[in-house]
Amino acid sequence: MEELLVEAEGAQQICLIKPPVKKNNIPIDLKLHSDIRAMELLGLLTSCSRLEEINQAIQDGKRETTKEEEEIKRLRKELIPKAQLMPYFDRPFVPRRSKKQPTVPREPKDS
Length: 111
Prior knowledge:
Strand content: 5-15%
Radius of gyration: 53 Å
Oligomer: single chain
Largest sheet: 2 strands, antiparallel
Number of helices: 1
């Protein structure tokens, strides 16, 4: 396209060529390597945090079970009475006087 300009001082006509019009620039979606790495790292960190939460839950469960087992052991030792021996009914116990001679008391010696 050509544009005609007229100078006001003289009757000369100057023809100038207008530069071509640029099209509107459309931004291109750039995928930078650092952005891709950041997304991969984010995914890795979220999966690691999930694994840590699962491991923490498992360890808490183990601690709870060990505490319960220790409590049960303690209660078994303290609260449950132990069995007594059964008496012999075929030969009942009859107290008898001892056949040993009683000891003779002595006076303490003061030196």
